Amino acid sequence: MAGPPPSPIWTSHGRVEGHLALHYSPAGAFSPDSTTLAVVSDEKIVLMNLAAGDVGKVLKVHLKGITDLNLHSASYISPTRLFILANGIIEEKNGKGGGATPTLGFQWVVDQDALYDKVDTIGTGTGYGPPTYFPRLGYVGLYKDSFFTLWNVNSGRAMGVKIPDLTRRPNLYAFSPDGHFLLLAQIEGSDNADPVVVLLKERKFADVLAGHQGTVLGLSFSPDSHLVATACEDGKIRIWREGEWKLLQVLSGHVGPVHWADFSPDGKWLASAGEDKTVRVWNVETGQLVQTLSESKEPVLTVAFSPNGNYIAASTEGTTLMWQRAQ
Question: Is residue 27 a contact partner of residue 136, using CB atoms and an 8 Å limit?
């Protein structure tokens, strides 16, 4: 009788100066075919050749009339284009300074190293929370006064979702890929750390993911929307089943806060990023720790699987690390 298949073993596959998205999902940094990883480094985007584990190309991002460009993230929206979130300083004209820009969203053509179409401003005016990009959905989310605006980065069209029960800003939220649920956490003024579940078709609170002993720092749906992982300040990752919101696993092993977690494309594995400078890979079904990746010298803030599941990328404030799955 054959035994269980061997667990995947991840081997270090290089590092580069720069970061992935630090405050929301970094999954979009991978190209759709899993050959390239886009890493933000100052005003440049370093494209890593994943097969070789080295730099393939460097994009020099620049916008007319904008100086001191600060890139927040670079996410593939097609094999040839990146969606970039950034801000900067408006160039002075006739001795008059324009001040800081709002968040800017624009597309960049990889082959031509040039702007595609136009630059959009995101969340102008007062009262908006920071924009959040959801690469697997292709939307930027903005919150203001019980209202979520979702902006499609390809079509430029926007739609709104009003949640009347939500009267204070959530600093962390995630939409399920199937469009059925919205999770809310870090709600300002609340003394409850547990995320709230919103049933989107009714625009109402439906449940609470109870039991967290600290601030929830990351919310991640599996690609099929069936599972949710919450990464918590209490050092644990919790896995929940969508719909009935049953707690399936509590993953313990990190020393200190866990900043992010990401499911593999097939939903069988989970990678987590911790304050303890480690990335840990878990078996989702059993809750067992498969491997601890300890190459980082700083707290790890984000982590993501490649679309084909063969690579893991994680980043600190200033360094991105990569691992390859042994064949």
Answer: yes
Are 315 and 19 within 8 A, CB to CB? Answer: yes
Q: Is 83 helix (H, G, I), strand (E, B) or coil?
A: strand
In a domain, 302, yes or no: no
CB-CB contact of 307 with 262 (8 Å): no
Q: What separation, in Å, do the N-terminal and C-terminal C-alpha atoms of the chain show?
A: 23
User: What does residue 27 show for φ and ψ, rounded to 5 degrees?
Assistant: -60, -30
pTM of the model: 0.94
C-beta pairs of 42-45 under 8 Å, 24+ apart in sequence = 42/18, 42/71, 43/69, 43/71, 44/18, 45/71, 45/74, 45/82, 45/84, 45/108
For the stretch 248-280, pLDDT in tens is: 999 999 999 999 999 999 999 999 999 999 999
* Amino acid code (one letter) for 79: P
Q: Tell me if 115 is assigned to some domain.
A: yes
Report the greatest alpha carbon distance in the chain: 81
Structural domain contains residue 248: no
Phi, psi of 94, rounded to the nearest 5 degrees: 55, 35
Domain enclosing residue 39, as ranges = 14-124
Which tokens sit at 45? 């985007």
Q: What is the CA radius of gyration of the chain?
A: 20
Instruction: Establish if 79 belongs to a structural domain.
Output: yes
One-letter-per-residue 3-state SS of 251-281: EECCCCCEEEEEECCCCCEEEEEECCCCEEE
Q: What is the pLDDT of residues 25-52, one digit of tens each?
A: 999 999 999 999 999 998 999 999 999 9
In sequence order, the β-bridge partners of residue 183 are: 174, 197
Count of domains forming the chain: 1
